[in-house]
Design brief:
heterodimer, A: mainly beta, 7-stranded mixed β-sheet, 4-stranded antiparallel β-sheet, 0% helix, globular, B: mainly beta
């Protein structure tokens, strides 16, 4: 079974702190994604990566950065956390097959981040 | 981007079949139809996907209209564990496997 793990289920940080959210997948997937999920807004894509050291902006990248130094690990960084970044953060990965449109995304359990 | 429309919520009785509809009237010829679901306090999980023909797997069936402007996810016998938000999503190669999640349908299953 594909396993996507996230470093914390719950995290509480203070405004202005630097926050690292870690995601690790064990299936040698090329693609990795970070989403945030908010009530009434659904899941929104923050950043994704299709290879080591590669990254692409999603729909809402402002206030975030990412790092992919190893294939299995994709980190989301909040340089200076703000209260409007309180949210559920979900990581996903997928295999970059020839038929990209059929690739299944596998999600982690999520990290609920609260910024005070 | 092609969008999907789903009812906000649906109710079902345990052990009965459930038909979850999805409209995607602006679907293009290369768009695949995916269904994911999200159980409480978990990340989304893949359910099924298809292009033109109906599809079956151990979790569900996907019925796709002939004109592809709508589809229906069928759970043959709902269990309490199937209570979740179900998302109908379109994707194609041009979008680089990006999935755009809408609001989904919250399925409630009554014992």
């Amino acid at each position: 079974d594909v396993k996507v793990t996230q470093s914390s289920r719950y995290l509480v940080k203070r405004t202005g702190e630097k926050v690292f959210l870690e995601c690790v997948q064990d299936m040698d997937h090329e693609n990795m994604f970070w989403y945030r999920q908010d009530p009434g807004l659904g899941l929104r894509l923050i950043y994704f990566s299709y290879d080591v050291k590669m990254k692409e902006k999603g729909d809402i990248p402002e206030g975030y950065s990412v790092s992919r130094e190893k294939k299995e690990r994709f980190s989301l960084i909040l340089e200076s956390a703000s209260t409007n970044q309180t949210s559920m953060y979900l990581c996903a990965s997928s295999f970059a097959g020839q038929k990209i449109s059929t690739d299944t995304q596998y999600f982690g359990p999520g990290t609920r981040l609260t910024v005070l | 981007d092609a969008k999907t429309t789903q009812p906000n919520s649906m109710e079902s009785n345990e052990e009965e079949p459930v038909h979850l509809p999805c409209n995607h009237s602006t679907i293009s010829g290369t768009d695949y139809i995916h269904w994911y679901r999200q159980l409480p306090s978990q990340g989304p999980e893949y359910v099924i996907h298809g292009l033109t023909s109906n599809v079956n797997n151990r979790m569900a069936s996907l019925a796709i209209a002939e004109d592809r402007k709508s589809s229906t996810l069928i759970l043959h016998r709902a269990t309490l564990r199937d209570a979740a938000v179900y998302y109908c999503i379109l994707s194609n190669n041009n979008a680089g496997n990006m999935l755009t999640f809408g609001g989904g349908t919250r399925l409630m299953v009554k014992p």
